[in-house]
Amino acid sequence: MTGPMSSKSVLAAILGVALLAPASVLALQKPTLGELALEEQERRKALKASGAGKVVTNDDLPRGTVAAPPPAGTTPAATAKPDEKSDKPAEPAKDEAWWKARMNQEREVLGRNEMFALALQTRINSLTNDFSSRDDPYQRAQISEERVKAIHEMDRLKTEVELSRKKINDIEEEARRASVPPGWLR
């Protein structure tokens, strides 16, 4: 019985041990699951009898110790005393690096959107040419659908480009009002 038969018997023995191992662990478990459930039930009864699990309501508190709620529409931070420190982070210093970073960030957004608009316009032109060169109505319908999606995306992108340009103008105006040297925005 050498060869494949002996390897099958070894495999069967290993499988048998693997299947019986969890059963032997459960048999050795002290205390059992049923015993643990009974202990938990008795613990809850004792807790209930001692009153440790009682829920305290406003009626249980003395009248003088209940704090009045803050006025409607305010937060607890708004009713804090002025001498207390707030947890708000300090506003960053508006130095040359801050102004340059702010302007460069908006210029990068504008540049990306303009580049994407150029690529999208090329795609629209390509779809228009492809549409006119096809005779199959099914293919023309698919190309037309893609072209309409591209045109809608182009409209959305033009709006974003205009918003970016407006933001850049607003930053320049804000810097002018704050007497920021023009070189800080370059």
> Largest sheet at a glance?
none
Instruction: Summarize the helix and strand pattern as letters.
Output: HHHH
How confident overall, as mean pLDDT?
A: 80
Binned, the helix content reads 55-70%
> Gyration radius, to the nearest Å?
37 Å
- Total helix count? 4
Q: Can you tell me the overall shape?
A: flat
Q: Beta-sheet strand percentage?
A: under 5%
Stretches where pLDDT is under 50 for at least 5 consecutive residues are none
Let me know the number of strands. 0
CA-CA gap between termini: 87 Å
Structural class: mainly alpha
Summed up, what is this model?
The protein is mostly helical and 186 residues long. It has helices at residues 4-28, 33-50, 96-133, 137-177. Helix 3 runs antiparallel to helix 4.
